[in-house]
Amino acid sequence: MRFLVDNQLPAALARFLASRGVDCQHVLDVDLADASDTEIWEHASRNDIVVISKGEDFLYLAGVPGARARLIWIRLGNSRTKALLSVIELLWPRIEAALKAGDQVIEVR
Fold first, then answer.
1. pTM here?
2. Rg over CA atoms, the chain
3. 21 and 95 in contact (C-beta within 8 Å)?
4. b/e map of 3-33 (b: 16 or more CB within 10 Å)?
5. Rounded distance, CA 47 to CA 3, Å?
6. CB 44 within 8 A of CB 69
7. Number of compact structural domains in the chain
8. Are 91 and 57 in contact (CB under 8 A)?
9. Residue 106: predicted pLDDT
10. What is the pLDDT of residues 53-107, one digit of tens each?
């Protein structure tokens, strides 16, 4: 399973997940830093990638009938990168389980 971290989240999140064996990149890594949410979602759909974002627009894109990409929707308030990474590390087993179960949207609070 491949993952793509959106601009609203730090590149450190992609590096953190990659360091733990997760196939993860940040939009900066794949020339999508200036892309619209729709363009990012289309890229994810074409390439079977799970988007990780705080953006509510992705929630609507994931709800379109026939949507192929999936979303990990980060609903944490503004926090330091270290705190974000701690929460992701703690919840990652549940996130993976939800993805394996076929969930379209996984909300992280």
1. 0.96
2. 13
3. no
4. bbbbbebebebbbbbbeeeeebbbbeeeebe
5. 10
6. yes
7. 1
8. no
9. 98
10. 999 999 999 999 988 999 999 999 889 999 999 999 999 999 999 999 999 999 9
DSSP sequence for 85-105: HHHHHHHHHHHHHHHHTT-SE
User: 3-class SS at 2?
Assistant: strand
CB 23 within 8 A of CB 71: no
What is the separation, in whole angstroms, between the first and last Cα of the chain?
Answer: 22
What is the domain extent for residue 25? 2-108
Among 79, 76, 67, 74, which Cα is nearest to 104's?
A: 67
What is the spatial distance between Cα 12 and Cα 47, in angstroms, rounded to a whole number? 22
Whether 102 contacts 67, CB under 8 Å: no
